[in-house]
Amino acid sequence: MASALAARMGLNSLLRKQARTFRVRICTMESDMEFSCEIKWKGKDLFDLVCRTLGLRETWFFGLSYSVKDTVAWLKMDKKVLDQEVPKEEPIVFHFLAKFYPENAEEELVQDITQHLFFLQVKKKILEEEIHCPPEASVLLASYAVHAKYGDYDPEVHKPGFLAEEELLPKRVINLYQMTPEMWEERITACYAEHRGRTRDQAEMEYLKIAQDLDMYGVNYFLIKNKKGTDLLLGVDALGLHIYDPNNKLTPKCSFPWNEIRNISYSDKEFTIKPLDKKTNVFKFNSSRLRVNKLILQLCIGNHDLFMRRRRVDSLEVQQMKAQAREERARKQVERQRLQREKQLREEAERARDELERRLVQLQDEAHMANEALLRSEQTADLLAEKAQIAEEEAKLLAQKAAEAEAEMQRIKVTAMRGQEERRLMEQKMLEAEMLALTMAEESERRAKEAEQLKQDLQEARDSERRAKNKLLEITSKAAYVPPSHPADNLPGDLSFSRENLSFDFKDTDMKRLSMEIEKEKVEYMEKSKHLQEQLNELKTEIESLKMKERESPLDIIHNQNTEQGTSKHSNFKKLTLQSTKSRVAFFEEL
Predict the structure, then answer these.
(1) Pairing outcome for strands 71-74 and 62-68
(2) FERM domain spans which residues (predicted)?
(3) Does position 147 have pLDDT exceeding 50, yes or no?
(4) What is the average pLDDT score of the chain?
(5) Can you give the three-state secondary structure of 259-306, one letter per residue?
C-alpha cells in the first residue's frame, strides 16, 4: 500500500510539472475562492494574490494555514508552495486566517475588511469555545453580533422569534442556565435595542473591544515540559510568552513580555529563551514534536516583530492608510448625518401626512354626523307638520259638531212648548245637549291648544334644521381649507435622492474639527467603559438565579474566582511583569 501511495504522489508531481500549474482553494471566514497557480510560485505570490482579491492591505496580521498530521502549519512566504508539506490532492486547500492579533483593535485595525475578518474569526472561536467567555459577556457580544447583521432594532420588523435560527451563544453558556431560547432572545434583544444608531463597522468594533479583554483572546497554547519534566502550557500572544497550568488556561503562572526577550531558538525538541538581562540564566523547555517547535518559533518571531513595530513611528504606508481611514470615516460621518437629516425630514413628512389624514377622517365623520342630524331634523319637521294638519282638521270637525248641537238645542227649545211631559223630556234632552255641547267645546279648546303647541314644535324643528345646515356649511368650508406649506412638503414625491452630483470638500478646518470630534469620541468611550462594566454586572445579576452551578466547567469556576479577587487579564499581566526576570525564570524551572 505504501508503494502504491508513493507511486500516486509521484504521478501527481509529474502531472503538475507537465501542466506547469496547480489549483488551490482558499477558504475565508465568508467564502471560498479557487486560483490556478504556477509551479514556480512561492508562498508570498499566492498570499499576495489572495490579499489583492480581498482588497486587504494590512497583510501582516494574516497567513495561509493548512493541516499536517493533526498539526496546524502556516505557509512560508519565502519558499515555493509545492516544496512545503502541503496536501498533495488538488485543489490544495488553505485557510486564510488571522495569524497574529493586535494589542488594541481600535487603534491598530485600520481597514474595514481587516476589522470584519477579525470579527468573524473571533466570533467563531467564542462560539466554538476556543476562547472562554463568561455568560454576561456572551449576551452582550451576541447583541453586537445581531446589530452588525440586522442594523438598528425595529420592533415592527424584529419581532419575537427572529433570532430562533441564529447561533449566538456558546453551548456551554446555554446549558449552564435553566432558560428557554425565548428567554435568551429576550435578554439579547434588550441589549440589542440599546445599540441604536451604530453602523455595522461600529458594532463589529465594539464586539472586538469587549472580546480582546477575554483571558484566552489571541493566545496560542502549546503543551511543553520544563527541566523537571512537569507538564505545562506555553501561551504565545501579542504581549509575550506565558506559562500556564494545563488545567488553567485563564491565569498564567508567570509571563515574559517581548521587550525582555533577547533571543529565541530551538534544537530538535528543545526550545531556548534568552532574556535581555545577560545576568539572568536562559530558560529551556521541551515540546512534543519538532514541527511544534517550528510553529512556536514562527509565532514568537511574528508577535515580537509586531510588538516592536507598534512602539515605533508608523511607516509611510501605515500613515497613509490611517489618513485615508480617517478621511473615509469623516466622509461616512458626513454621509450618515445627511442621511439622518433626510430620514428625520421623511419621518416629519410622514407624521404630517398621517395627521392630515387623521384630520380628514375626523372632518368626514363630523360631516356624516351633521348630515344624519339634518336628515333627522327634516323628518321630525315633516312629522310635526302632518300632526298639526290632522289636529287642525279635528278642531274644525269638532267646531262643526258644536254648531250642530247648538242648532239642535234651539230647535228643542221651540218644540218645548207642546206639553209638560214633552217639556220635561225636552229639558232633559236639552240638558244632555248642553252637557254634550260643553264637552265638545272643551275638546275643541284642547284640540286648538294642541294644534298651537304643534305649530310651535314645527317652528323649533325648522330652526334646528336651519342650524344643522349652517353646521354642515361650516364643516364643508373647513375640509376645503389647505394648511400652510411645511418644510417637509418640499420633499420630492418618492423621497429619493440622487448621489451622482454629491461631492464633499474637506477643508483643513473641517478635518481639524472632525479630528477633534474623533478624539472626543475616544474620551467618551473611556467614560462609557464604566457603564459597560455596570451593564455586564446587571446582566450577570439577572441570570444568576437561573444558573445550575453543578454544570459549571473548570474554566467557569476559575473565571468566577478571578472575578471575586478582582483579577483581570491586564492586571495579572502587569503584576507578573513587576517581578524580576531572574525570579520568573527561577520560578518556571521550579514548577
Answers:
(1) antiparallel
(2) 22-311
(3) yes
(4) 80
(5) HHEEEEEEECCEEEEEECCCCCCCEEEEECCHHHHHHHHHHHHHHHHH
Q: For residue range 483-516, what is the model confidence (pLDDT) as tens digits?
A: 444 433 443 333 333 333 333 333 444 445 545 6
Query: Phi, psi at residue 115, to the nearest 5°?
Result: -60, -40
pTM of the model as a whole: 0.66
**Are 288 and 223 in contact, with CB atoms under 8 Å apart?**
yes
Instruction: Calculate the alpha carbon distances from 53 to 131, 267, 437, 577 in Å.
Output: 30, 39, 121, 42
Give, as one character, the DSSP assignment of residue 483. Answer: P
Mean pLDDT (whole number) for 311-315:
84
pLDDT at 15 exceeding the cut of 90: no
Neighbours of 102 (CB within 10 A): 20
Distance CA 553, CA 532 (A): 25
Q: Which H helix or E strand runs over 565?
A: helix 554-565
Integer-rounded Cα radius of gyration of the chain? 47
CA 263 to CA 272: how far, in whole Å? 8
Three-state DSSP at 354 gives helix
Reduced to 3 states, what is the DSSP secondary structure of residue 81? Answer: helix
Report the C-alpha gap between 568 and 577 in whole angstroms. 14
Query: Residues forming the annotated binding site?
Result: 76-79, 294
The CA–CA distances, whole Å, from 253 to 219, 243, 295, 384 equal: 15, 6, 23, 106
Taking residue 53's Cβ as centre, other Cβ atoms within 10 Å add up to 13
